[in-house]
Amino acid sequence: MPGVENSWLTPGGRLLRRLDVFLSEPLRQASLEDLGRYRLLILIALCLVLLNGLSLLLLPWSPHPWVQGPVSFVTFGVNVLALVRLRRPYSPEKTALLVCATLALALVFISSVPDLPYSASHAMTMLLPAVSVYLVGARLGFFLTLPVCLVLGVLHPVRYTLLGSMPRQELVHLWILDVSAALFMLCIWAVSWMHASALNQARIAREQMLRMQHESEHKLRTLVENTDDLVCSLDAKGRIIVANSAMRDYCRDRHGWQALPGEPLLSPDAQNRRQVEHILQQVLQGQSVRIEDGSLDSNPPKVLDLSFKPVLGEEGQTIGVTLFGRDVTERREAEHKLTEMHRSLVDVSRQAGMAEVVTGLLHNVGNTLNSINVSVHLVTERIRASRVGSMVRAAELIHTHREALGRFLEQDPRGQQLPSYMLALSRQLVEEQQALLAEQRTLTDALDHVKSIIGMQQEHARVSAPVELVKVSQLIDDALRLHAVSFQRSGIDIRREYEPIPPILLDRHKLLQILLNLLSNARHALLDSERDDKRIIIRLTALPDDRVRIQVIDNGQGISPEHLTRMFTQGFTTKKDGHGFGLHISALAAIEMAGTLSCESEGPGLGATFTIDLPMQGERPG
């Protein structure tokens, strides 16, 4: 940690570095905290060596040479030994304990000199607890300090009290100084212990934080390196701080340069260089920039989504840039294929719409053609059963007796019956003419409906519908008349329940188309039920919310509950030969008239009710 090491160098850092010559190589590689402890031990030992060496030199002039000499000599030797031990592979803790123990013994020995009564309260005594706690720990420091405190604070004043001849006032003063010195030594130990405990806790917390930081950095580094995305961090000058392997590979393969820490994020290509410089300027101004690099047309195709985002400092200023890149080649290819597929679907849907138009046209025209076929069949039968041939025979009879026509009419029995026969035959021919005219009107209406269906299907989505005032009850009768013969042949009883409804605005042909579909479906439901009392009820009622309701009710085979929700779905049918377009087209036609078409059934065999709800006032023409 260079920053922490430099803190030892200012001020006096060079001196502390010089102290490392007394340390063995393993001790020099210790942690900074232990290295500081060893340096302090060296400094204390050197100071004691210097002081004791000076004391030995001044020994001839000392007032107490028998005390100063042994203490200085022993202390000098022990500290020199400590310095020697630090250069050897010995335990530095034992060396520190030796130095502290020697200092404690020196203090005890000095305080035992009878001619130095105030030696126990010397300031040097404060050095022992402070140094011992720092060098050998709080526990050993306490065991070194406590005996010295007892000697200096208790035994030393007791000795002068019992054996000395000091005046009472000086004796009290001695007790105060010695006890205070002992208490202050304990206080210094306590303060040093608390300080050392705080430092130890801070060291443990720092180590835990560093360990967590290292683990987090390792996890983050592993995560960044293992991701396939490009990750790069830049400083405020656009130089690379860190780049993962994917980023390095991309820069090497794509742009031909190495993304190394400390290098600027600039491509050798001039155009790319200008683009990167412009992007970095924008990001350093606080903007986020996102671009795509590459093309599907390249070989191999490669498209990267690059995102440049600013890194903000504590005061909100931009201090760097982060670059994230993701390979979106597969996504772009999928989007390209999706676009092509969408285009194909549009073409298919257009063709399907055309097919639906044709299917609807054939279905609706087919229903009407069935009615036309019935009407044509009826006309054919009426013409075949016509009495026109009898009129020809009567005319031939008159022509045969034209020369004596009066006598023939008066005398001949056949001539007498001929006038009444001609009258009856004329009346019958008139009736046949009226019936044929009625069928001809039906055929005309059906053909008009076919024409309208074809016109609507040609427009498909109408711009303007032929809206007109329609009497709904009459339109229902027209639909019933188109199915009248098939109902009569199938033995189906038709019941009309009409409420008086005024004419309303609507599209006649669309409503007729719906009614024809519903009546045709009701007929098939009754035929499939094989019941004798086949019945269809057509009910026309006015609703209170200005709407009109038309219901087609049959007592046929009914509808299963699971089929009710699908009745108006395109392609769904319960008929064996059905195609599933009739009800779907009818529902769409009802919606186009701002109405609804719904279905109800209590279940199989219980019939069904189809309901058309239409607004009383439809859209007005023009």
Automatic annotation (TrEMBL):
<dbReference type="InterPro" id="IPR000700">
    <property type="entry name" value="PAS-assoc_C"/>
</dbReference>
<feature type="domain" description="Histidine kinase">
    <location>
        <begin position="434"/>
        <end position="618"/>
    </location>
</feature>
<keyword id="KW-0812">Transmembrane</keyword>
<keyword id="KW-0902">Two-component regulatory system</keyword>
<dbReference type="InterPro" id="IPR003594">
    <property type="entry name" value="HATPase_dom"/>
</dbReference>
<keyword id="KW-0808">Transferase</keyword>
<protein>
    <recommendedName>
        <fullName>histidine kinase</fullName>
        <ecNumber>2.7.13.3</ecNumber>
    </recommendedName>
</protein>
<feature type="transmembrane region" description="Helical">
    <location>
        <begin position="175"/>
        <end position="196"/>
    </location>
</feature>
<dbReference type="InterPro" id="IPR013656">
    <property type="entry name" value="PAS_4"/>
</dbReference>
<keyword id="KW-1133">Transmembrane helix</keyword>
<keyword id="KW-0067">ATP-binding</keyword>
<dbReference type="Pfam" id="PF02518">
    <property type="entry name" value="HATPase_c"/>
</dbReference>
<feature type="transmembrane region" description="Helical">
    <location>
        <begin position="65"/>
        <end position="84"/>
    </location>
</feature>
<feature type="transmembrane region" description="Helical">
    <location>
        <begin position="96"/>
        <end position="113"/>
    </location>
</feature>
<feature type="transmembrane region" description="Helical">
    <location>
        <begin position="133"/>
        <end position="155"/>
    </location>
</feature>
<dbReference type="InterPro" id="IPR035965">
    <property type="entry name" value="PAS-like_dom_sf"/>
</dbReference>
<dbReference type="GO" id="GO:0005524">
    <property type="term" value="F:ATP binding"/>
</dbReference>
<keyword id="KW-0472">Membrane</keyword>
<dbReference type="GO" id="GO:0004673">
    <property type="term" value="F:protein histidine kinase activity"/>
</dbReference>
<dbReference type="InterPro" id="IPR036890">
    <property type="entry name" value="HATPase_C_sf"/>
</dbReference>
<dbReference type="InterPro" id="IPR005467">
    <property type="entry name" value="His_kinase_dom"/>
</dbReference>
<dbReference type="InterPro" id="IPR000014">
    <property type="entry name" value="PAS"/>
</dbReference>
<feature type="domain" description="PAC">
    <location>
        <begin position="285"/>
        <end position="340"/>
    </location>
</feature>
<keyword id="KW-0547">Nucleotide-binding</keyword>
<dbReference type="Pfam" id="PF08448">
    <property type="entry name" value="PAS_4"/>
</dbReference>
<dbReference type="InterPro" id="IPR004358">
    <property type="entry name" value="Sig_transdc_His_kin-like_C"/>
</dbReference>
<dbReference type="GO" id="GO:0000160">
    <property type="term" value="P:phosphorelay signal transduction system"/>
</dbReference>
<keyword id="KW-0418">Kinase</keyword>
<feature type="transmembrane region" description="Helical">
    <location>
        <begin position="38"/>
        <end position="59"/>
    </location>
</feature>
